[in-house]
Amino acid sequence: MIGGFSTPKKDKAVKSSGGKLVKTGEILVRGIDTYKAGIGVRGLGTLFAAYPGKVYFTRKKTSHGSLRTFVNVAPLAKKEAKH
To answer: Which residues pair with 69 in a beta bridge?
Structure first.
C-alpha cells in the first residue's frame, strides 16, 4: 500500500437525506452516478441545491425500462409580509 492508494475514498456519498432542510449551494450528493439532478438541483458529478428548501427523492422509469433516482429540492413557502 504505497501512498494509501488501495484504500477506498470516503467522500463519495449522499450528503443530505430526504426531508432535510438545505441552503442554496449545499452539496446533496457527491461522486455517485446513480443519482441524477431533479427539480431545484444542479450539477453532474456533484449535485447541489439551486435554492433553499426541503430535499426529496423520486424514482422514474426511463424509455429503456431502467429506474433512475432523482434528487429534488422543494422550495420553502415564502412568508407573507406584514403590513
So the answer is: 35, 59
What digits encode the pLDDT tens for the residues 23-76? 999 999 998 889 999 999 999 989 999 999 999 999 999 899 899 999 999 998
Determine whether domain 12-75 maps to CATH 1.20.140.10.
no
In whole angstroms, what is the distance from residue 4 CA to residue 32 CA? 22
Distance CA 36, CA 59 (A): 10
Closest listed residue to residue 46, CA positions, set 20, 14, 19, 18: 14
In whole angstroms, give the CA distance from residue 55 to residue 40: 9
Which residue ranges make up each domain of the chain?
12-75
